[in-house]
Amino acid sequence: MSVPRPGGESWGMPIIEVTGLRKAYGSTTAVDGVDLSVAEGEIFGLLGPNGAGKTTTVECVEGLRVPDAGTVRVAGMDPVADRDRVRALLGAQLQECALPAKLTVREALELYAACYPRPADWRDLAERLGLTGHFHVPFAKLSGGRKQRLFIALALIGAPRVVVLDELTTGLDPHARRETWDLIEDVRDRGVSVLLVTHFMAEAERLCDRVAVMDAGRVVALDTPAGLVRRSARGTVVSFTPSRPLTDAETATLPGVRAVRVRGDGQVTIEGSDSTVEAVVALLARLRVTAHQLRVADGTLEGAYLDLTDAGPGLDSGDETPFETPASAAAAGQA
């Protein structure tokens, strides 16, 4: 049976199927009845706060954990009972990995390539991930970011049909992160399915066809990133630093406002509707207040995520660039 899309269409046949998955550690239930399917050729994201059960779920998919209840199938096979067959088609980059301290980058790539009958070209992977200049560097001497790149290469070196990536770009600088995203999109375009665990919202929005949000061991939402944003209670968000503080009475006149927050440095953030933007600009012009660093954004995946979970600050929502609209420039010019 194919994986359904919203609206009745299909994502295609599932490569990963998880049904009623449960896993506990002593008295602590880590995963409590998780159901999800990843279609062939899909990048599927798994989001959730620390302790939500994401890593336990993917470890059951990888065959590293034995479920207490439920079923897990990868290409129709049980990752525990059919361990060798599943490992032949599944690549994994774990959340925490290590290699022998003196093993060089080249030795690690050659060693892993030798474990597969038809490995990917490890030289090409090394070039794509910026490792060619570090072939003779021992693992212990690599920076955190280069270790991460090496583990991504090792996850892909077996030319897998499906790859599990847990915190894909942790430790990478913005340039390396975007190069890695390009690589993962290229891997998907070649027909590889990707199960991606991430806390980085910009990464999920850029890469994922669908995302499941987990909280307290359960899937609390499953949709496309855009679908989750549309379902969120958060609409248009306007943020700026006024040239003088605004009073509650002044902001109370704005239409469609859901929330007004003021940071300690004076930055004002207003959550509202599409009409809120024009109303804010008009209010600032009427009050002759200049709006510094004015930003306008539609609802975001981070906002939807926060609506669905009890997570607080600490999520990385990606780059945010201030911009000036003609209306905001006019308002500032009248101040």
Describe this entry's structure for a reader.
The protein has helices at residues 54-62, 83-89, 105-113, 122-128, 144-156, 174-189, 201-207, 225-231, 248-251, 274-287, 301-308, 326-333, and strands spanning 3-4, 10-12, 14-25, 28-39, 43-47, 69-74, 90-93, 162-166, 193-197, 210-215, 218-223, 236-242, 259-262, 268-272, 291-297. It folds into two domains: 3-229, 3-Layer(aba) Sandwich (Rossmann fold), CATH 3.40.50; 232-333, Alpha-Beta Plaits (2-Layer Sandwich). The strands form four sheets. It has a six-stranded mixed β-sheet with strand order 7-8-9-5-10-11, with helices on both faces. The chain has twelve helices and 15 strands. The protein is α/β, with parallel strands linked by helices. Helix 8 packs across helix 11 and helix 10 packs parallel to helix 12 (326-333).
